[in-house]
Specification:
Helices cover 32% and strands 18% of the residues. Strands 3-2-1-4-5-6-7 form a seven-stranded parallel beta sheet, sandwiched between helices.
Length: 188
């Protein structure tokens, strides 16, 4: 099984990077999956967390041109990488709007999963006071999340923010082993 993960980067010390290092290393080492990761603008940049040596990390170099040029360059390079890697499954871990557009970028029939590692509310509520860009992003997220074969969120609370049969909950893995459970009794 050849898996392809799409994310903005691995050099940060955030939760997404940590979860990816744990989960993808486990899949590569224990299930013998061929795992590829595509990042943006991180060529020759070392990931913050340790990833299995079996994982192949690719980077797409995007310059800060106009938004339209950036998007077309992103689409072109992403299609080239996907054609070269030929994954069985693609998982998108990009909370930006371009992540939501990913099903429209790929011309092959490959199952595409979206992994949302933050609550929807991060974009702000759809209210009168929200600026136009935020309102447009919110509208497009609601419209496009149905295009994925599976839309993964971390909690039941996150799941309630989205509609559709493709939304499922898969909590983050824990790197800690629980050796002993303790019953706490709270006194009044």
């Amino acid at each position: 099984m050849r898996l392809l993960y799409i994310t903005n980067g691995l050099s940060g010390s955030g939760g997404l990077e940590r979860v990816l290092s744990i989960k993808l290393s486990y899949m590569a080492d224990n299930y013998k999956y061929e795992v590829h990761i595509i990042t943006l603008n991180e060529d020759r940049v070392k990931p913050f967390y340790v990833f299995s040596h079996k994982i192949q990390i690719h980077s797409i170099a995007l310059s800060k041109k106009t938004r339209v040029q950036y998007l077309f360059h992103y689409i072109k390079q992403m299609r080239e990488k996907v054609n070269k890697i030929q994954p069985d499954i693609i998982s998108v871990c990009d909370d930006g709007l371009k992540g939501f557009c990913f099903p429209f970028l790929i011309t092959h029939k490959i199952p595409i999963i979206y992994e949302r590692h933050m609550p929807k509310i991060i974009w702000g509520k759809n209210s009168f006071g929200m600026n136009f860009k935020r309102r447009m992003n919110y509208f497009l997220m609601n419209l496009f999340h149905h295009q994925f074969d599976c839309f993964v969120v971390l909690t039941d609370g996150n799941k309630s923010e989205w509609s559709g049969k493709n939304v499922i909950v898969i909590p983050n893995p824990s790197p800690f082993n629980i050796e002993k459970k303790v019953n706490f009794k709270l006194s009044k």
